Amino acid sequence: MNNNNVKSTSFGILLKSLIAPTFLLFFMVMVGAYAVYNLSSVSQTTRVITDDMVPNTGRATEVMRSIFNERLALYNFRASGAPDDARIFNTEQKETQRLLQEADVYFKNPQRRAMLQSLSQQHENFGRHFSQELVPVQTEMMALRERLLNELGPAARREIERLVETALVSGRLTEVRVAVAAQGNVLNASTQVGLFSITMDPAFQREAGLLIEDARFTIEDYADIAGLDTRALIAELVSTWSEYEEAFAQMIQLAERYQAILNDSILPKGTQLTDAAYGLQLDIFNHLEQEGARTQSQIQSSNVIMMLLVAIAAIIGSAIAYFITRSVVKPILAASHVLSDLVTSLRAKNCDLRQRLPVTTRDEVGVLARNINEFLATLQPVVNQFRESSDTLQSASSKLTKVALKTQEGTHQQKSETIEVATAMEEMESTVADIARSAAEAQVLSEQTDKDANEGKQVVNQMINSSQDLAAQLKEMADGIESLGSHTASIGQVLEVIKSISDQTNLLALNAAIEAARAGESGRGFAVVADEVRTLAKRTLDSTVQVQSFVDNVQKGTELVVLKMHKCKASSESTVEKVAAANEALNMIMTRVQTIKDMTTQIASAAEEQSLVSHEITRSVDRIRHIAEDSALSAEGSSQSALEMDRLGKELNQLVSQFKS
């Protein structure tokens, strides 16, 4: 498939690809120049709006706001009539005048300047009417209001109160009733006059006039019935109320004049002033809207023209790009088909490296095709060499895999046996530790036994000494008790003699009694003595019998004690012999315990040494086990690497077999 028919061309892909962008760039420059021209025009219009109209709009708005503040101050002055509100109006008027003068400097449009001058003239007239006409009338009205509400009205009420007090003191109830009615009318009239002076409402004016007239009638009625002592007070009240009526009439005239000034001059001029300011503001807004509409129309027409230019440039550029792209893409597509066939055959594992790309041009596409052909030609011998190397690699990896598997089996067996040895050594180490611990415990126990035997020997020696002392004491007690028995026998003999003497004394006393009886009265005293002697002999005999009984019991007890003492003596002698035998046994136990103590000491030392040796052996076996585990892991890794190498060799062989060279 090698095609060497190369077309000669003088343009490369780079030059071809630059034609369309260059053309589009030319059109974009044209569009940009037109856009800059239109933007300059729009910028000029915008500058007029931002530098002239927008600031003028703000100034007109400030003038409008200041005029509204003036009118608000006017309304406040109408409501209160206070000098402070008049000063506030003058301040607002000066502020408006300042804003008008500032606007006169910045306004350039002749029509708006004329409107501004007219507005300034109207504003000046408005302020002059306020200062020269309205303020004097308002000031005079406030003075009358002050006189009515704070002087004449309170004076009339005080005079009526004096009349009421005088009538009450005099007890003239009719005068009191009429005076109280007059006082109520005066108070109501003063209230309505105050409301009228604040609101200037005709309804309050009419109501105040009627109440003033009613108060005058009531005062006249009171004057007709008043006593001589109140004539002077009545005269003062009539005079005060007449002045009150005159002042109220003047206030009505001033109020009518005040309303006339407001309705004919101030309010219309204020409305005209507001309308003129609004007209100036509206003119600026209309002009601003016209300029905005003109700018919007200019922007829209510019957008349409630029869109047409862009569309024309896009159409022409697309046509140029199509033809240039076709001349570049066609050989690329041809080369792409060949490369696609190579890729398809490679996926099918039947790649033919003997194919070549067609070379039809001398541009970059042709250079690419030639380079790919050279790459394929260079790749063919490399693939052949890969095939030979993969066969060799596969053979070597198979052998290496077998060796690695055998090594892995050996290391696994070594690891298993090492683990068993380590387990046995750990068990032996545990056993040796138990032996050492038991030997140590036996040594401690033997030492304690030796100590206990020594203490037992001392106790036995003490028992021997105590038993010998007890035997000697028992012997002495036995001798003493035997001596007591012999003495008791002697007491028995003495008692026999005393008993015999008692019997003889009793017989003698009986004979004496018989002889005394024979003697009669002369022997009565002797009979009494004989009877006493007989009684005494009887008591002696009874005591002797009792003592004899005691002595017999003592003799019997003494014999038993002597018998038991002999038994105790024999037992103590036997105990001494047994304690001596126990002493000999303890001596033998102490000798054997000392022997056991020496043997347990030797066993403990040997067990400790054996424990150290077994621990060292266990550590060595553990290190061997770790080495065996590492060897097993290394062998396993080598086996896996060998298997992986074998697999890669097979895959490489399969991949190389896909290429036909």
UniProtKB/TrEMBL annotation:
Naturally occurring in which organism (per UniProt): Nitrincola tibetensis
Compartments (UniProt record): Membrane
The protein's name: Methyl-accepting chemotaxis protein
GO biological process: chemotaxis; signal transduction
Similarity comment text for this entry: Belongs to the methyl-accepting chemotaxis (MCP) protein family.
Annotated Methyl-accepting transducer domain residues: 389-625
UniProt keyword list: Membrane, Transducer, Transmembrane, Transmembrane helix
HAMP domain residues: 326-384
Gene Ontology, cellular component aspect: membrane
Transmembrane regions listed in the UniProt entry: 18-37, 304-324
First-listed, main subcellular location of the protein, grouped into a coarse class: membrane
Record Pfam families: HAMP (PF00672), MCPsignal (PF00015)
